């Protein structure tokens, strides 16, 4: 018996609806059976005039037809019933579980075992062979299970896989002499209480743990029975117990050739003989006949004798490997699903389903005895048909990307809004445009979040290109300009004068010049403001590139040769150089740069429009439509006229990435911390986006810009912690501390789906979870190395103090660790589940713990069981693999029926 009951029926009642649908879904999917061969193509049978049962074969005869049940079915042909092969006292020959299926059966093995090649026996799986069983230190394989052990100076954490360093002797459970053989729990008043791993029971001395059949089949090969003295093993009737009292020996190990036949002589039904064929000769050798009854054997030639030798299923299964059936023509052997009958008509051989059409698997197919398993590439998820792989839509998850997310098959990409730069794969930080070439501004560059702007010194104003500065208008210039505007406004006024209602805007002030009483039919037009047209009966500002025409009472595209860069206007501005070629061919211009004739990079002119001049030697201009070029500085020349970047300047040395050229000293200087430069020959370094910075100076890549903020979200019910800059590499010399303090009567469950910490630097980077900051307080989890297998565990203490520390050495991706707090009434069930190695044994189970959507749903329900009802039956059925449901089912039923 594993888990003791809690005696809290309400908890059980709450859990029952949660898991019941899971339990109901553990049915076998159809579709893995082999199709039976097509029936013969004649007469009644062919024309479908027969009344043979669906599970019968129809055989045409000269006058009529014959129905006979297919193998695996019994009956007279018009009625065929499935034979339950598992019903016999030999359990279908299966040593663990036998599963009857229509027309056939299948043996399955308990967790920790795999089907042997004979399809009946089960063999221990050596979990340690794959990925060290998920053990951080040492993996020890035992019959039906495995065990992780830790090196000297470490002890196994409650999750049974990772090891905690025992740096110094602490109190109670942190003292190595705590005496518990498995799990030590702090108890009130500094004492300890021992607990055992799932499948073990606490011994009478309250310290030792006694194995039960619930863990690794009690170490038994075949059958396990719990007794007061521990598990008692026994073997399937056809097998023999090894002297170790656990393993079972297959019959062929005892009798190399067990086949013996029963024969009878025609006419003397009572005369039975046993025939033993010689080893290595099965069909061809004439069997030696031994008299087994005191009657004479008819002497005849060997051929006759052989024909007369009849096999029957009653003895040695008729020589069949698997299913045997007596028929009028002799025994008929057949094989279960996943096996094919060999030419000898008796032996069953595993079919390698993967050889044909990849077993129907979308991605990977792995053959197993009697079956096969499909699995998917990273970024894909196996669907419940257990064959198809579906792309995981990472974009449908919360927090995947800061801004926009683009899903691709097997992967995803994040993108940032304009003015932001991507860092750490998924995050967006403000771009500091001013760090590169002063943002292109001629005078002052001011960075803002999501944008930047150029500003001008006093007595200057920004050019229309918003980068250059031009001398401001003096009073006479202002008068001229105002007169011009006034004339234009009056023209507009006249045009509109006969309309019943209009506005005039002067110096930004709305003036209501005249107003006739509106006609009722145009009543709705009345409410539209200046520069607004109507769409239906709504007023809409005319967009940039258009203006409101008072005569036509609608928004009109700016005519060729004009532009308007603001919305809700009543005129368009003339293009700066209407005479330029192309200037008159740009209706709906949004801004002056669309007017045409713009100066190209490497060029300039007084207003940024043609005719343009090439930048002089010693100057460059990377942008179009500019009024000047930037000097290289330091008296440097350029290789040619019309240079477009600083790289065209003839510097004395060429700076490598991570450096910039100082034009005063003519040397390359390392980019300071917080900046990077990926290119050769630059005179600047790019500022890291947003609130990120680099660990060191001389950075060459934006990936070195890291956010140092300790991430995560701590909630009372669910939350997560993550290493800074996750999923980008975490910064050097960082220290993060979190505390989780659950509400009353709640305990913490944590899942570490994967964690990436470089092992190289001698545990310089580590994550530790313990009760308090004190290094000898109860520790739940501790690691300083990469561990890609997911691990789930409950906290040993009620609250948790979590610390992540990195040193200046290597860095890695770190972790994102979700947690949930659950009602402590479920504690035993949850601990039973998460400490069970089977949760981690299967690839598909591991995927559950890495599947963010699933974890979210699981946590959602664990935190608030009533949320279960948010999920439809279909959704919950599709969420979990069947083996996971099986695992849960055994746990939950033991939890709900502890008395059993
Ligand atoms: C031998 O035959 C007799 C009848 O002739 C029968 O009763 C007996 O069971 C047989 N013995 C064996 C070993 O088959
Ligand atoms: C003008 O519009 C073009 C295209 O719409 C845009 O690329 C450019 O940056 C704009 N220029 C200014 C000065 O707003
Ligand atoms: C404006 O220019 C476009 C492009 O050349 C031309 O198709 C259109 O007719 C012009 N419109 C006017 C009013 O000249
Ligand atoms: C270039 O070096 C000089 C002299 O060391 C220093 O004063 C100046 O600030 C440096 N320029 C830049 C852009 O760092
Ligand atoms: C940077 O940090 C400040 C506070 O430290 C915060 O207000 C701001 O939103 C952060 N900016 C970004 C882009 O994260
Ligand atoms: C930055 O580094 C990443 C990964 O090391 C690489 O893929 C990328 O091309 C680099 N970017 C630049 C601009 O060198
Ligand atoms: Ca910015």
How would you describe this protein?
The chain is of the alpha+beta class. Among the domains are: 259-350, Laminin, CATH 2.10.25.10; 353-383, no CATH class; 435-472, Laminin (Ribbon); 473-514 and 523-595, no CATH class; 710-896, Jelly Rolls (Sandwich). It is built from eleven helices and 67 strands. The radius of gyration is 41 Å and the shape is elongated. Bound molecules: 2-acetamido-2-deoxy-beta-D-glucopyranose (NAG) (6 copies) and calcium ion. One 2-acetamido-2-deoxy-beta-D-glucopyranose (NAG) binds next to loops.
Strand-helix topology:
Elements: H1 9-24, H2 43-47, E1 56-60, E2 65-69, E3 73-74, E4 81-82, E5 97-101, E6 104-108, E7 113-115, E8 122-124, E9 138-142, E10 145-149, E11 154-156, E12 163-165, E13 183-186, E14 192-195, E15 200-202, E16 209-211, E17 223-227, E18 230-234, E19 240-241, E20 248-249, H3 251-254, E21 261-265, E22 268-276, E23 288-291, H4 302-308, E24 323-327, E25 330-334, E26 339-341, E27 348-350, E28 364-368, E29 371-375, E30 380-382, E31 389-391, E32 404-408, E33 411-415, E34 420-423, E35 427-430, E36 444-448, E37 451-455, E38 460-462, E39 469-471, H5 475-496, E40 501-506, E41 509-515, E42 532-535, E43 538-541, E44 546-549, E45 554-557, E46 562-563, E47 573-574, E48 603-604, E49 613-614, E50 619-620, E51 630-631, E52 659-662, E53 667-670, E54 675-676, E55 686-687, E56 692-693, E57 706-707, E58 711-713, E59 718-722, E60 735-740, E61 746-752, E62 755-756, E63 766-770, E64 779-783, E65 791-794, E66 800-805, E67 814-823, H6 827-834, H7 838-841, H8 843-850, H9 852-863, H10 873-879, H11 882-896
Helix pairs in contact: 1-11, 6-11
Bound molecules: 2-acetamido-2-deoxy-beta-D-glucopyranose (6 copies) and calcium ion.
């Amino acid at each position: 018996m594993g888990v003791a009951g809690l005696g809290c029926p309400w908890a059980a009642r709450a859990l029952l609806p949660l898991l019941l649908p899971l339990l109901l879904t553990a049915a076998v999917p159809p579709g893995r059976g082999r199709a039976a061969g097509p029936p013969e193509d004649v007469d009644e049978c062919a024309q479908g005039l027969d009344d043979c049962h669906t599970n019968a074969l129809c055989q045409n005869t000269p006058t009529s037809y014959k129905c006979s049940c297919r193998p695996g079915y019994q009956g007279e042909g018009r009625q065929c019933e499935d034979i339950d092969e598992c019903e016999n006292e030999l359990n279908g020959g299966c040593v663990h579980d036998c599963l009857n299926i229509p027309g056939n059966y299948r043996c399955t093995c308990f967790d920790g075992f795999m089907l042997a090649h004979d399809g009946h026996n089960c063999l221990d799986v050596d979990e340690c062979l794959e990925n060290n069983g998920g053990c951080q230190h040492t993996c020890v394989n035992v019959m039906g299970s495995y065990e992780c052990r830790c090196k000297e100076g470490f002890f196994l954490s409650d999750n049974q896989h990772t090891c905690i360093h025992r740096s110094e002797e602490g109190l109670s459970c942190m003292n190595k002499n705590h005496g518990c053989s498995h799990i030590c729990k702090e108890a009130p008043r500094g004492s300890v209480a021992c607990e055992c791993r799932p499948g073990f029971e606490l011994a009478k001395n309250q310290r030792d743990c006694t194995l039960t059949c619930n863990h690794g089949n009690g170490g038994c090969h075949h059958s396990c029975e719990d007794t007061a003295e521990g598990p008692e093993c026994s073997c399937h009737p056809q097998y023999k117990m090894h002297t170790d009292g656990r393993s079972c020996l297959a019959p062929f190990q005892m009798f190399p050739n067990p086949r013996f036949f029963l024969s009878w002589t025609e006419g003397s039904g009572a005369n039975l003989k046993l025939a033993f064929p010689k080893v290595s000769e099965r069909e061809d050798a004439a069997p030696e006949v031994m008299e087994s009854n005191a009657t004479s054997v008819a002497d005849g030639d060997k051929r006759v004798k052989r024909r007369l030798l009849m096999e029957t299923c009653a003895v040695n299964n008729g020589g069949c490997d698997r299913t045997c059936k007596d028929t009028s023509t002799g025994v008929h052997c057949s094989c279960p699903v996943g096996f094919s009958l060999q030419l000898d008509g008796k032996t069953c051989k595993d079919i390698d389903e993967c050889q044909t059409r990849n077993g129907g698997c979308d991605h990977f197919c792995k053959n197993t005895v009697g079956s096969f398993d499909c699995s998917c590439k990273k970024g894909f998820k196996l669907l419940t048909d257990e064959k198809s792989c579906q792309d995981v839509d990472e974009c449908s998850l919360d927090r995947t990307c800061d801004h926009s997310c683009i899903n691709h098959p097997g992967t995803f990409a994040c993108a940032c809004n304009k003015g932001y730069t991507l860092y750490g794969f998924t995050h967006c930080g403000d771009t500091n445009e001013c760090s590169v070439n002063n943002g292109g501004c001629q005078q002052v560059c001011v960075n803002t979040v999501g944008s930047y702007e150029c500003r001008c010194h006093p007595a200057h104003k920004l050019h229309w290109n918003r980068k250059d500065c031009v001398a401001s208008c003096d009073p006479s210039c202002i008068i001229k300009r105002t007169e011009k505007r006034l004339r234009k406004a009056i023209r507009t006024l006249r045009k509109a004068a006969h309309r019943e209602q209009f506005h005039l805007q002067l110096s930004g002030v709305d003036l209501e010049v005249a107003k006739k009483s509106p006609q009722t039919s145009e009543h709705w037009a009345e409410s539209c403001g200046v520069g607004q047209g109507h769409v239906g009966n709504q007023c809409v500002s005319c967009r940039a590139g258009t203006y409101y025409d008072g005569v036509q009472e609608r928004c009109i595209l700016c005519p060729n040769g004009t532009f308007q860069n603001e919305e809700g206007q009543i005129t368009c501005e003339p293009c700066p150089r209407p005479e330029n070629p192309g200037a008159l061919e740009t209706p709906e211009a949004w801004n002056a740069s669309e007017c045409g004739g713009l100066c190209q990079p490497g060029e300039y002119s007084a207003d940024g429009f043609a005719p343009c001049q090439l930048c002089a030697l010693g100057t460059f201009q990377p942008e179009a439509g500019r009024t000047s070029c930037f000097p290289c500085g330091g008296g440097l020349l350029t290789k040619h006229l019309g240079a477009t970047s600083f790289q065209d300047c003839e510097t004395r040395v060429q700076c490598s990435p991570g450096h910039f050229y100082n034009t005063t000293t003519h040397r390359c200087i390392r980019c300071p911390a917080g900046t990077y430069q990926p290119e050769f020959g630059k005179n600047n370094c790019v500022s890291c986006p947003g609130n990120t910075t680099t660990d060191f100076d001389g950075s060459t890549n934006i990936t070195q810009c890291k956010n140092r903020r300790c991430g995560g979200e701590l909630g009372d019910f669910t939350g997560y912690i993550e290493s800074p800059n996750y999923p980008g590499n975490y910064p050097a010399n960082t220290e993060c501390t979190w505390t989780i303090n659950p509400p009353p009567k709640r305990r913490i469950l944590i899942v570490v789906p994967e964690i990436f910490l470089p092992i190289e630097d001698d545990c310089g980077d580590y994550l530790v979870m313990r009760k308090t900051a004190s290094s000898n307080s109860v520790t739940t989890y501790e690691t300083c190395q990469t561990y890609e297998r997911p691990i789930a565990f409950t906290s040993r203490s009620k609250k948790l103090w979590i610390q992540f520390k990195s040193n200046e050495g290597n860095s890695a991706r770190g972790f994102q660790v979700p947690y949930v707090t659950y009602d402590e009434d479920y504690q035993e069930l949850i601990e039973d589940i998460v400490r069970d190695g089977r949760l981690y044994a299967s690839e598909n189970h591991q995927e559950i713990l890495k599947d963010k959507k699933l974890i979210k749903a699981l946590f959602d329900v664990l935190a608030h069981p009533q949320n279960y009802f948010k999920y439809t039956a279909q959704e919950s059925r599709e969420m979990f693999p069947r083996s996971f449901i099986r695992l849960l089912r055994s746990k939950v039923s033991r939890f709900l029926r502890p008395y059993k």
